[in-house]
Structures are given as structure tokens and as C-alpha cells.
Amino acid sequence: MGVNHEDPHGDHVLPHGRALRLGIGGPVGGGKTALVAALCRSLGLAHRLGVVTNDIYTTEDADFLRRAGVLAPERIVAVQTGCCPHTAIRDDIAGNLDAVETLEKRFGPLDLVIIESGGDNLTATFSRGLADRQIFVLDVAGGDKVPRKGGPGVTTADLLVINKTDLASLVGADLTVMSRDARAVRHGRPVLFTSIRRDTGAREVAEWVIGLLEDRPRERHVADRTRTASETA
Amino acid sequence: MSDTWQTGPGPRRKRPDHMTIVSGMTGTAPPTAGTVMSATGAGAITARAVIRTAAGPGGTTRLETLLSDPPLTLRRTGPARVHLVGSGAGPLGGDHLTLDVDIAPGTALEIRSVAAMLVLPGPADSTMTVNARVGAGASLRYSPEPTVLAAGCTHRLTVRLSLAADAEVFWREEIIFGRHGERPGRGHSRFDVTVADRPLLRQDLVVGRPSVEGSPAVYGHARCVGSSLVAGPRWSARAVPAIGNDPPTAPVQASGDGWTALPLAGPGVLVSALAPDAVELRARLTRGEEAAERIAAGRIVAW
Amino acid sequence: MRERSAGEAALLLLADSRLPAGGHAHSGGVEEAIRLGTITGRDDLAGFLRGRLATAGLVAAALAAAACELGAALADVEDMEEDVEEEDADDACRLWRRLDAEADARTASPALRETARTQGRLLIRTARRIWPSAMLDTLARAVPDGAHHPVVLGATAAVAGCEPRQAALAAAHGSVAAPATAAVRLLGLDPVAVHGLLAALAPDLDGTAHAACASLGGARSVEWPGLPAHAAPALDLLAEGHRRNPLRLFVS
């Protein structure tokens, strides 16, 4: 699939005939891995999932997910990024594409492959050649000014998740300010507040992902039905 | 001309007509004389020694041909064992030595040497070539003492090892970078191994060149390099490496300090070792050879 | 005949570290050598790169040159015949597998074989989109899990319009450029000083490419067994150690 230049924010048509590829990015410690685990808990029963992790130290995140027991261990693949997690999701996505295709080949067809980036800075975003949609994860402990600072991750991600709301009062973060600033720079794209520690299934985020899965074109299934009908006739 | 060829275990036989001596050397030298004569500067030597087995009665191995050609002097030292005995010092620069080994189907042989082969400088490069064929169901164990590249030498070692599909081989090579305290001579070994005409292993090792000397990528600070190849059907059915980057789940003990046992793409394992001295090199190779046996027994999953 | 004048520009594209084919994640043994303390600075790195070029670099260059020669010959056949006979395609698959088997025989370390195949798989995925061709499709079909990287590099070079010597040069360059970059990242070395090391190796890169092509001529597979097979025992040890180290940043 190619980049849609008409629409830099990626509202391009979702793929059919293969898994939806969902990128999850954001700074270190915001809760990316916790969100992946939460999505596996919420979606794992009804959907066929695979996970690719890009942690700086190879298997750290993959091991966390395997220990968490949210997904069969063999469905989690770790990709090394040679000190450049950013490069691996944006400039040279070959290693991640290979991991995604390996999962699809081994377990396919899949509904959803989640690609978790290594922790990076606010400019890190996924190439549209790798992720069909992307979530950017911040936490309140990083300071309530972060959404105002913007950066491609905050402004262009298809969904901004602000995590660890349970800590807001402890770190003096004003959620109202964060919400207002985020909405101001995101031109209507959604923002969700979560506390994955309390809501271990990240219910609202999961619903957003289910919405994506349901929005996917149905041509293939229609074609399947047509063929079945003609065969029956 | 040295004459230590024997047949066995049956009665002694006449040398077959087809056997000719390539060497220009003449005379009935004692087993160690080749070394002495080449060292006296009698001119460059071209020598070709031959070992051939044949199937004896009741599944035994008969030495059909054992043809020495100084300084390559062969002696039978056991029912299925031959020693190279004339290699104490030599070859000298300019010498071209060849050993042809033919292990007939269903037979077994071990080839060893009594001492290290010290390669000395001379007016030209020296070469040592070993051509070995191991037939169906046959086995060959080749474990000579090390080759020492003395300062100033330029030596070329070529081994062509051709195995039938179900032949088994153990092949050890050790190269020492110069005698104690001296700089290494120049060496280039080339090892080509095929199984049923398919390539199993091809390796050049270059020693004593500025490009590789002291390089942490090649030998580091080692003074010796060695390898043991084990190949045969026992190594053909291995766990296939998984696609992806997940760490191996099985306990792996196929590497240690300065050695590693490398399961090849084909039916074999190459043990590779680097060491500061010859004693340590042998110890490391031995550890690797034991690991290779564990791989054959399936006790190490060779991911 | 195919147009060859594109060779030089295509060579630049192939050798550019920005070619999106996963090269950025490979240290070629440098990460493990640093962990073990055998590379601590610029001088160690210089020796490492020199030895790597003379061994793994030369072998990669020779395989890439052979693959380029074969790829160009196969592409010429495809150009001449609109409908490639199934028999020809089978022959092409067989030839690719034979060259790939020669690469296997020159790569004793399973870790390095896996690395080479992974890199080959990544490169052919990228190359088939940039330079679509029946020849690359055949190679991908012949070795579905990924041919060795130098084989894919040579085939890609052929379809991009490079000569075998240029394919060899790209392979030789890659064999030292990637480890040099990794050392800059891992040791915080002065990138200018490290590029100085690469510049000092430039004549050796040319020499390696020349040596890699010395035993070729006419895409005849009969020559492949004799191609250089220079081994680097330390690289094998490093690769096996690296493979077992869970705390690693690079694939190799």
C-alpha cells in the first residue's frame, strides 16, 4: 500500500485481505506495553491477533507480554532496531514489515497486528507503509504541558491516549488543561484518557479499535458470498 | 623409495601395477628420511602419497594401498589406522606434497601423524594438498598434529573432501602461527567439502597477512586457529532454525570460551576454535567435538 | 541487450544506508565485540573493519558479483522471450538455489546464516517494489525464506543496471559501513573519525571488488565452487555469542 498524499493525516482506506496494522507509539514509560496488553485482553477472545515489539533491548517488552499471559507467546515477535527505534517504524520499516508478514504467514489470516514502537520522543510516528492507523500514548506524569508542545505524534496520531490519570493529583497534572490543549492541536481527532492500572482492558481504546476493525471494507467477504451463491446455483 | 605400504589384515601382497611414484626422490629411505633429505637442500620435492582401503572379508577394512613418498611417509599402526611419520620438519618452501585418500564403501580408517608439520621458508611457496574421497557407508577420521607456519614461510594447504551421502567423517586441522615467540609465516588453507556433490563447507583461512593480523574480526590475539568437521547422516536431521528473532528456548551449550560448535546447513557440524597456544587449542576443539556429539544425539537443539 | 549506463547511479542507491531494507539494525559483530571488550575505540575498530573486509566482505562481494552476473543473464533471457518457458523458469530456480547453497557452505555459523537470510528477505521485499522484475520474482520463488543477502544484493544490482564489479563493490562497502555506523552509535565515537577509517579503506574496497570478480566469467555455475570462501573464526564466535545475548540492540 502506498502513502496517500492527498491526506497526510492518514484517513486513507483501510486494507482488506490482510490484518489491520495498528501502530502504538509514544515516549518511554507512558504505558505503551500496558496498552498492548490491555488490548490483547479486550480483543483477544473475539479477534485473531499478533504483536510486534520494538523495544530498545530486544525482548524486554515481548517478555513482559509473554509473562502477562495475554497472548500465546509465539504470536509476539520482537524486532531489533539497532539503537534507532525511530528509524525502524518510519524511515526503514523493512524489519517490522518482515515481522508482520512472518506472523501473518505463521498464524494467518489475522484480524489485527499491533506494532509497538520502542520508547522515543514526541516526533516519532509510524510510516503509513507500516501502520494503517496509529495510537500515540502519553502519560500525565510526563507533565501536563506535553500536549501543548505538540509534535507529530501528538498532533497527527489517529488516536491520542493520555494514560495514568490515577496519578494526576499526585503529580499535579491538570487533566482539563491536557484535554483542552490536545484538542486544540488535533483538529478533531480523538483523545482518550485512561488508567490502565484500574481499567486493565482499556475499554474505550478497545472500542475505538473494534470500530476500526468493523469499518474495514467488506469486498472480500462479499466476493466470497457471491462465489458461494453461484456455486450453489 | 620408502616402502611401508602394507595390506592387511590378510597376507602381504605385491604392489599393484598402477601405482607409480611421482617423486623424484629415490632410494630406500627409512620412514623418517624424507624430512632429513628435504632439509639438506636436495632441491624442491614433489611427492604424492596414497592411501586406499578396500572391503575385507566379514565387513573388515583392508589397506589396499599404502604408498609413501618422502617426506610423506606412511605407516600402518593399527587394524584400521595409519600414521604419517615423516613430517617432523617440512615441507620447505618449493615443496609440493600431495596425499590422496580413498576410503572404499563400507570401510573405516583413521589417519594421524606422529608430530607437527613444521613449514619452513624456501626459495618458493610450499604446498600441501589432500584429496580425500569417502565412499558410501564408509568412515574416515583424520586428525594429524598441527601445522606450524614458521616465520618466513609461504604455505598453501588445500583439502578437497568428497563424501558419499551416508559417509561419516571427522576432520581436524590445527594451524599454529609461528614457533614460540616468532612471527607467523604466511599461510593460506582452503577446505572444500562436498556431500553427494553438494557443497557442505568451503573455507579459506589466511594467516600472516596485514589484512587479517590482529583483527578482532578474524583471529583477535589468538596464536592458533583450529577446526574439526564432523559430518554424516547423524547430523542430517536437525531442528530447523525458526524464522524470527526469538531467542532459542532450549538450553544451548554449543559455545564456550574461544570455541563454538556450528551446525552447518548440510549434515555436519564445524567446531571452530581460537587459542593462545596449541595445548589450549586442542582442549577447546575437544570441548567443541563433545558438543557436536551432543548435537548428533539431539541433546542440544541446534536451533 | 539491457541499458547499462544506469550502473553508477544505481550503485549509489544500492550502497546508500538509507535504502529501506533493514540494514540499519545490523552491527556485523560489532555489538558483541564491544560487549566483550575486544573493540573499545577507533583503533580496534580499524582492525576489525580491515579483517572483516578481507574475509566476510570478500565472500559477500564474490557472491554478489556472481549473482549479478546470473541475474543479468536470466533477465536477458526474459527480455528476449516474451513468454518465458516453464522449463526456463525451473532452470533459473535451480541456478539460484545452487548459488544460495554456495553461500550456505561459506557461512558455517547458523546465526550468520539466519542473519544473511533475514537481510536477504528484507532486501528482496524492498527491491521487488523498487525494481519490479520477473528475475527477482523467480529468485524470491526459488528461496522463499530469503536467499543469502549477497545473492539478493547481486540480483538487485543486475536489475538496477549494475555490472558485477559494482555489485561486488556495494557488498564490500556494506560489509564495513554497517559495522562502522554501529560502533559510532554504541561507543559514541566521533563519526568523522570513523568515516576517516572507511575512507582509508577505499582502495581496499576497490581491490576487494576486483578480487571478487577475478574468478568469474559468463555466469557459469561451474565457477561458483571456486569463489572465495574466506572465513573469520572470530566473527563466527561473535555471531553465536550475540545470538544468545538477550540484551542486544542489533539483529546481528
TrEMBL record, chain A:
Signal peptide range: none
UniProt KW Nucleus keyword: no
Keywords noted in UniProt: Chaperone, Cytoplasm, GTP-binding, Nickel insertion, Nucleotide-binding
InterPro entries: CobW/HypB/UreG_nucleotide-bd, P-loop_NTPase, UreG
Gene Ontology molecular function, alphabetical: GTP binding; GTPase activity; nickel cation binding
Localization of this protein: Cytoplasm
Highest rank taxon of the organism: Bacteria
Principal location: cytoplasm
Classification via Pfam families: cobW (PF02492)
GO CC entries: cytoplasm
GO biological process, one term: urea catabolic process
Record domain CobW/HypB/UreG nucleotide-binding: where: 22-192
Family indicated by similarity: Belongs to the SIMIBI class G3E GTPase family. UreG subfamily.
Subunit structure: Homodimer. UreD, UreF and UreG form a complex that acts as a GTP-hydrolysis-dependent molecular chaperone, activating the urease apoprotein by helping to assemble the nickel containing metallocenter of UreC. The UreE protein probably delivers the nickel.
Alphabetical list of PANTHER family matching this protein: UREASE ACCESSORY PROTEIN G
Function field: Facilitates the functional incorporation of the urease nickel metallocenter. This process requires GTP hydrolysis, probably effectuated by UreG.
Protein name per the record: Urease accessory protein UreG
Native source organism of the sequence: Sphaerimonospora thailandensis
UniProtKB/TrEMBL annotation, chain C:
A UniProt-annotated Pfam family: UreF
Annotated Gene3D superfamilies: Urease accessory protein UreF (1.10.4190.10)
Main location: cytoplasm
Compartmental location: Cytoplasm
Keywords, in A-Z order: Chaperone, Cytoplasm, Nickel insertion
Listed HAMAP family: UreF
Sequence similarity: Belongs to the UreF family.
Protein name: Urease accessory protein UreF
Species of origin: Sphaerimonospora thailandensis
Taxonomic path: Bacteria, Bacillati, Actinomycetota, Actinomycetes, Streptosporangiales
